[in-house]
Amino acid sequence: xxxxxxxxxxIGDCHRCDLGDTRTRLVFGVGxxxxxxxxxxxxxxxxxxxxxxxxxxxAGKLLDELLASIxxxxxxxxxxxxxxxxxxGNRNPLPAEIETCTPFLREQVRLVNPCVIVTLGNFATKFVxxxxxxITGLRGSVQHAGSFTVLPIFHPAAALYDISKRDTLFADFAxxxxxxxxxxxxxxxxxxxxxxxx
Length: 198
Ligand code: SF4
What we know:
The chain is α/β, with parallel strands linked by helices. The protein has helices at residues 4-11, 19-22, 46-51, 58-68, 95-112, 122-129, 135-138, 163-181, and strands at residues 30-31, 37-41, 78-81, 116-120, 143-145, 148-153.
């Protein structure tokens, strides 16, 4: 596939896993198609499932504030999730669901080809870094996966009612700003070789 639109058409009205039977709307991803910065979250929640967009609830509002803190908006970044459909009751993604759905995410990463990938929370971090380590230990530490610089941070939803996590998120976003500065004005090399998680 050459474009994100082609990928979206390829996914279609997906029922490749059981979440296709319970979701309201598939949440493909949004943002700048050649963004230097890509966020990978976990899965759509209730609001996202209804609207078909990632991060539209209270966690999305916090994400907007965090982006503004480094002079960015959603139009500057690309946002996607590990799963494109909501697990019932917001339960955790199942391994089989992740295995079935993440080839689409890998393709999105290949097409956007960001410089920096920020993983939001445990599931995205474990998938991208192929690690069993938890987000609490990894957050704020600069990692690498394939040709990408990766920064794991808390999921904004986890910080909604936890002031200390909120402060930590703002500090980690300052680091994102520094990492983006290092990407250079001329961007970065096209993806070579295997992607993470492959
Ligand atoms: S979660 Fe992914 S694989 Fe499962 S139905 Fe939705 S788009 Fe298809």
